[in-house]
Design brief:
Strand content: 15-25%
Order of helices and strands: EHEHEHHEHEHE
Number of strands: 6
Strand order of the largest sheet: 1-2-3-4-5-6
Radius of gyration: 16 Å
Number of helices: 6
Shape: globular
Largest sheet: 6 strands, parallel
Structural class: alpha/beta
Distance between the termini: 20 Å
Helix content: 25-40%
């Protein structure tokens, strides 16, 4: 299934009732491709992504294209610091519901593909890489395109560290490979 979202903020909802209304459960969905831009002013892209994960309990392949053309369409305010903290947003969003809502992370998500633009070392794409590395327990392969061809090579030492931690938890090891353009 392919899902096009103009802005990930559109599906970032806290209310269970509103989430069910916007995103029904896709109980047999094995492959999901999402194309959408995180808002330059909003803080809810991680929540939107977690909402999608909750809806797809048997998801085995996930592809995100966060490097869409409209990503930079919103005007940037000069002199206003960017106070977003994607890792904290993901952690807060993950605490919103019991872990069984993320069944695909525990038992079926094996392949993740991420396309994003590396703006700085703590951009959403990099945080998502870490999130899936730490939480997708049967992950085998992560393909990435951060706009920098050497990003996957740069991630190899981190991958070894993540795999070491994962083995202690009984999770599978995974590899990070470049995503072909």
């Amino acid at each position: 299934m392919r899902l096009g979202v103009n802005n990930l903020d559109d599906i970032a909802v806290l209310s269970e009732a509103r989430r069910v209304e916007l995103l029904p459960a896709f109980r047999r969905l094995h492959r999901l491709e999402v194309q959408g831009a995180p808002s330059t002013k909003g803080k809810s892209a991680p929540l939107a992504i977690l909402n999608l994960l909750r809806c797809c309990p048997v998801l085995s392949a996930l592809r995100f294209n966060l490097a869409t053309e409209n990503q930079n369409d919103a005007p940037k305010k000069e002199g206003v610091p960017d106070t977003r903290n994607p890792q904290k947003e993901i952690q807060v969003a993950a605490l919103l519901g019991p872990s069984h809502h993320f069944q695909c992370l525990r038992s079926s998500l094996r392949r993740v593909r991420l396309r994003f633009r590396v703006e700085k070392s703590d951009c959403l794409g990099v945080k998502l890489m870490k999130f899936f590395a730490e939480n997708a327990m049967v992950l085998k392969e992560m393909r990435i395109d951060g706009g920098d061809e050497k990003l996957s090579e740069h991630m190899n030492p981190k991958t070894e560290k993540w795999n070491s931690k994962r083995r202690k938890l009984g999770a599978t090891s995974f590899v990070v490979l470049p995503l072909k353009r």
